Prior knowledge:
4 helices; mainly alpha; 79 residues; globular; 0% strand
Amino acid sequence: MRFAPSRFIGYQNNTFDKHSSNAERDGRVTNPAISRLLETPLPLADTELEEQYQQYCHSLGITPRPKGSFGVSRKYWRL
């Protein structure tokens, strides 16, 4: 199981430094591109994967926000 924001993994040769300085990073751009590469539909809200994400964050000592960016539900690709 792996969790990463699409606006991070959706850019070629991305690093944490590049990501933090990229003011134009946006999942609305990266989600369709990732879906095309994976040949899957756009990510969807998924209760089971949200629970696993919450558990993963807690195992790292992180308290995740109740919602994703902009207060909307997180979405996931189930591969």
